[in-house]
Amino acid sequence: METTDLKHQECISTLRPIRDALDVLNGKWKLPIIVALTFGEKRFGEISREVHGITDRMLSKELRDMEVNGLVKRKVYDTYPVKVTYILTPHSQTLGGVIESLRNWGELHRKKILSGEV
Amino acid sequence: METTDLKHQECISTLRPIRDALDVLNGKWKLPIIVALTFGEKRFGEISREVHGITDRMLSKELRDMEVNGLVKRKVYDTYPVKVTYILTPHSQTLGGVIESLRNWGELHRKKILSGEV
DNA sequence: GTAAGTACTATACTATAGTATAGCCCTATA
DNA sequence: TATAGGGCTATACTATAGTATAGTACTTAC
């Protein structure tokens, strides 16, 4: 085992969680959905209306994805007709810091690019 | 102009920088390339060897992308034969915080998922 | 009975990201 | 003269993300 191998192991164990985090956040719709849900639990149709441009198919897919990742919870009300809502989980709250730092860096980056500094 | 419109404006101005940041970081190869370059400037072939599995085509494409975004700088040495190296810019250093928070959250997330807590 | 809303799913398509393979032009070395 | 390395680019392919459009099964309101 050489230094480079140690380094390589180190890299992998650094990169894997970053990949995990990016996978959870990435794609065109996940963040907008999270934002829509920050103001409280919402029904499928409500989210669909707030997240402009999303198709039912994508919303359905993304919500399932986010449910698997523990970011949203699906609540079914036992009424007639059945009412379904989606709500952010406590786990999704822990994303706050990540989102903040992405936002801050994104703003800095945009300024640099626009100012021609880069 | 209603409350919802104000909210909507707010959302867009929050989401845009996040999108910007994610675009810069996303894809399979950008982070591994950044990691490879943290240990100093490297030549095309060296990066290619350190970032296991990347094809020349992708490396070429990603490096150009990162150059446009001001993350790496291409240095051409006026020797025979010409020597080309890539080096991280000061701007890419500002990504440190983002990467840290992605990594931390990714680790937390992985633990939660594996423990079945989610 | 028909129109409209709710929460979806199905099918088929396009666009973008990534892979596989090869080749080019240069130079140094055997 | 051939072989290998360096720094790419070209072409063609596959895989994944996203879009467009339609349909289903239910229920309430007109």
TrEMBL record, chains A, B:
The keyword Iron-sulfur does not apply. InterPro entries: HTH_HxlR, WH-like_DNA-bd_sf, WH_DNA-bd_sf. It comes from the Bacteria. Pfam families: HxlR. One of its GO terms (molecular function) is DNA binding. Transmembrane segments: none annotated. This is Transcriptional regulator. It comes from Larkinella knui. Keywords: DNA-binding, Transcription, Transcription regulation. Residues 11-114 form the HTH hxlR-type domain.
